[in-house]
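queue> pop job 88
queue> type: inverse folding (structure -> sequence)
queue> payload:
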């Protein structure tokens, strides 16, 4: 990992030197690309990541930008299998400084297989995925802004011990994320003497959970760990409650918790425990979240409400802005990568939130619960 990061930074330094132009000729804007799903089962996540990033960029632009240059977000509706081609075409047209706000490991893996971030000297800042295996967290050009599945599962099992949950059903998808979560949950359950029941996995990127619900209702259990997408979690909760399931429902951050009650109604969502990797958007104790809410009041459309996914997009964008602020006014993506890597093993302090960019993501860990009115309590 360390040698790969050094090699990438050496290449990035060469690209930075070759691409640097006099300040008088520098572009008036920094362009940031976001390949993200805007339709389909993950479309809501892509839009919320976009809105969160826009809040950060709108606020910094209103204050004069970074080194006098505005930051503009160009979002691409990702096409699975063509993400690398989409990014390459957009990069040729706009000379971006970074990639931001990706959702899940698939798009990241496509970019890595094409060697695109290294070729273009583009850092990838923030990906909404807790995966620590494969290309994701091992890529020297990736700067992590959220916690991992491992951290979330450890926290969930600690909570399960406090409610005396000794038999837990795991519901997840039939893909690489499901493999990783299953292995982590099995290891954690073994260490804690908890019996883990594996429900049939549902097809990836779908909400086809009926078989998993039936298996869960038929099994003796104290809690259900839902490690899948928002739509699948929502439908599972609806069918499970309709079937008189009484176990404690717990979901990882792969689901957008603040939207669940809107989908299934407050009664079905009530009492669900949520694993968070970013602070609650309305938590006034953290200066960063106070700034987030101020930006929401100024720039968020009236039809939208703050969500945890928006907060995650906002945190990633604020990390990117902090990196640009430490660069020269005419820096490119390679220089930004060097700036972000300069934190080394130290955590970036982001108005009260500590973010370790090279491995651990945010130092924030929390569990919340959905209240009787459908609001995520904190």
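queue> result:
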């Amino acid at each position: 990992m360390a040698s790969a990061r050094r090699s990438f930074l050496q290449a990035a330094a060469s690209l930075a030197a070759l691409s640097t132009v006099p300040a008088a000729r520098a572009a008036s804007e920094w362009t940031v690309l976001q390949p993200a799903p805007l339709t389909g089962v993950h479309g809501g996540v892509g839009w919320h990541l976009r809105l969160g990033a826009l809040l950060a960029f709108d606020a910094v632009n209103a204050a004069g930008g970074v080194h006098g240059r505005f930051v503009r977000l160009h979002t691409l509706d990702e096409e699975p299998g063509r993400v690398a081609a989409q990014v390459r075409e957009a990069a040729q047209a706009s000379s971006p400084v970074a990639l931001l706000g990706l959702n899940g490991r698939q798009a990241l893996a496509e970019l890595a297989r094409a060697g695109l971030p290294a070729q273009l000297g583009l850092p990838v800042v923030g990906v909404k995925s807790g995966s620590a295996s494969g290309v994701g967290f091992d890529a020297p050009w990736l700067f992590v802004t959220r916690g991992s599945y491992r951290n979330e599962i450890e926290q969930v099992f600690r909570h399960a011990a406090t409610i005396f949950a000794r038999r837990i059903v795991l519901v997840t998808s039939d893909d690489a994320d499901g493999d990783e979560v299953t292995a982590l949950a099995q290891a954690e359950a073994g260490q804690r003497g908890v019996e883990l029941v594996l429900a049939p996995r549902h097809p990836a990127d779908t909400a086809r959970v009926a078989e998993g619900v039936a298996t869960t209702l038929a099994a003796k259990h104290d809690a259900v760990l839902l490690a899948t997408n928002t739509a699948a979690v929502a439908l599972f909760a609806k069918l499970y409650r309709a079937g008189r399931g009484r176990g404690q429902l717990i979901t990882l951050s792969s689901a957008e918790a603040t939207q669940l009650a809107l989908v299934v109604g407050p009664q079905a969502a009530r009492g669900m425990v949520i694993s968070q990797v970013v602070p609650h958007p309305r938590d006034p104790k953290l200066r960063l979240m106070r700034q987030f809410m101020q930006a929401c009041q100024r720039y968020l459309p009236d039809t939208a409400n703050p969500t945890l996914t928006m907060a995650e997009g906002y945190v990633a964008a604020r990390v990117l802005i902090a990196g640009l602020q430490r660069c020269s006014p005419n820096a490119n993506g390679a220089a930004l990568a060097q700036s972000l890597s300069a934190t080394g093993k130290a955590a970036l302090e982001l108005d009260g939130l500590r973010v370790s960019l090279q491995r651990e993501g945010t130092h924030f860990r929390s569990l919340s619960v959905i209240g009787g009115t459908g609001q995520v309590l904190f």
